[in-house]
Every structure is written in C-alpha cells, then in structure tokens.
What does this fold into?
Amino acid sequence: MRTWSPSELTAYFWTQINSGILVRPVCRSCGANFFSPQVLCPSCQSDSWEYEESSGHGYIYSFTEIHRPPDSSFPSPLIVADIELDEGWRMFSWIVGCRSEDVRIGSRVYVTFEDFDAGTLPVFKIN
It folds into this structure.
C-alpha cells in the first residue's frame, strides 16, 4: 500500500495549476474521477490512482453569491460554484468575468486561472 503525506497528495495538482493545467485524480482500479485528492479512491478504496488532465469544461451544478468576502483581495460579490466537470467529477471554485445576474444553474463554463495573494487558482467563466 502506498502512503502519502498531505503535501505529496496535492503537490502535483498545484504544480499543474501554476502551469495553467487543471488535473484530477483518476482511479486505476475502477476508473472513478474524483476531487479532492485522497489517499484512497472514494468509490472502491484502491490506492492505485494517478492525476490526469481535465478538459476544464463543465456546467454549474449549484452556486451562491457572497456579498461580504473574507477580505478586500476578493471580488464582491463573490460567486462560489459547485462545478460538474465533463469527466464526471466536481469541484468548488469561483465564477468570474460576468455579472452575478448572468449566473444560472446549468450554465456551461470553462476553467481559467487567476493569480491571487495566496497564489494561482482555477476559476471558471461562463461560455
């Protein structure tokens, strides 16, 4: 059984994000796509998984609008969304580059990358 430290689990993800590439774990035993990176596949508990590149395309599964962001470095309103990616996995991120009234459940989105004080993060824009 392979053992991981928390930084080992996510280091490749963040390296790829810094290169403008969105990746996700894919189980070699059952084929499940999942996020966030975990020691074992959440579907079959296998420790045999690897990162694969994502298309970065999907749709808004759900979202909320935050009018009091954590600090002034965040946009206001901040639109936080649960994104369902085309490969069948989901992640939370932000919707950027549009008015909040243009955001709808089911809207098609694509990943882009923005630099923040904490580093580069994957965010999504509406197609």
Q: What stands out?
A: The chain has two domains: 6-53, 57-126. The helical segments are 6-18.
